[in-house]
Write a structure and sequence with these properties.
Number of domains: 2
CATH topology of the largest domain: Rossmann fold
Strand order of the largest sheet: 6-5-4-3-2-11-12-14
Order of helices and strands: EHEHEHEEEHEEHEEHEHEEEH
Helix content: 25-40%
Number of helices: 8
CATH architecture of the largest domain: 3-Layer(aba) Sandwich
Distance between the termini: 38 Å
CATH class of the largest domain: Alpha Beta
CATH superfamily of the largest domain: HAD superfamily/HAD-like
Radius of gyration: 19 Å
């Protein structure tokens, strides 16, 4: 069962993280930092189709510079292998499918979806059949989930998409649906999310001590689990978008991938000269 998050702040009321760099530099001095990044909407702009979200060479260079100094993980709803291919850096940890599939330069990998593969394939195939006449819908069958993208579906047709998902899940006890940014994800019904993935990675890297400050940057509602997981010890930065009025567990906000790049450069430069990471 998905736990209820305490989202008691509005995104629009959060301070801009770039305006607090001096205060953050003081807070992070002599600390060890681990950075966690969403991909779509964070490192790349939100686009109409998943294959259009291509990482800019300048952003790749910034992520690499940061990863040369401290641990960096990409935590995405995409398939792990897909986001690894898009980022193209082997020095990072990749957590795909909202953290159900984790691998990289760590001692062990995490596979939380192997036993659900057959169910997911069946659900994806059925959704493709039932939605074949709905224009603009994209059913993406991934290793650990089925993503139903409806950004390009005309508004009057969207209830048909929701009804098809409900029909596929009717009587299903092993799978669940979660909402994202203009997408519905069918996933294994397990007690796991991006927040659990962040905690698992920190433990795998022996970074659960008080001198470690985890930083998570993301834009999606699914990133709220990660913001909540590090609340009180880390820094959550939400990337603003069309839902700027929604509640969040993040502590700061930032406006789009371009500003994310500025913040990553700040972290890299600070850690290159001061923190000893």
């Amino acid at each position: 069962m998905r736990r209820t998050l305490k989202l008691n702040k509005s995104i629009r009321d959060l301070p801009f993280v770039l305006s607090r760099r001096q205060a953050l530099a003081r807070r992070l001095a002599a600390k060890r930092i681990a950075v966690f990044l969403d991909y779509d909407g964070t490192l790349t702009p939100i686009v109409d189709k998943p294959e259009m979200a291509v990482l800019a060479p300048s952003m790749r260079a910034l992520v690499k510079a940061l990863a040369d100094r401290l641990p960096v993980a990409i935590v995405s709803g995409r398939d792990r292998q897909d986001v690894h291919r898009l980022v193209g850096l082997d020095s990072l940890i990749y957590a795909g499918s909202h953290g159900l599939d984790i691998a990289g330069p760590i001692a062990a990998a995490y596979d939380g979806c192997g036993e659900y593969r057959e169910m997911l394939v069946e659900a994806g195939n059925r959704l493709r059949r039932e939605l074949t006449n709905v224009g603009g819908v994209l059913v993406e069958c991934k290793r650990c989930s089925v993503a139903v993208h409806y950004r390009l579906v005309p508004e009057p047709e969207r209830p048909r998409v929701m009804a098809a998902v409900d029909a596929v899940l009717a009587g299903q006890t092993e799978l669940r649906a979660t909402a994202g940014n203009m997408v519905i994800e069918i996933q294994p019904k397990v007690n796991w999310n991006k927040g659990k993935a962040v905690s698992w990675i920190l433990q795998a890297l022996n970074l659960e001590t008080a001198d470690v400050v985890p930083i998570f940057i993301g834009d999606d509602i699914t990133d709220e689990d990660a913001f909540a997981a590090i609340d009180g010890r880390g820094i959550g930065v939400v990337v603003t978008g069309p839902e700027a009025n929604r509640a969040t567990a993040a502590g700061y906000r930032i406006d789009g991938p371009e500003e994310v790049g500025v913040f990553l450069r700040f972290l890299a430069e600070m850690n290159g000269s001061e923190s000893g990471n």
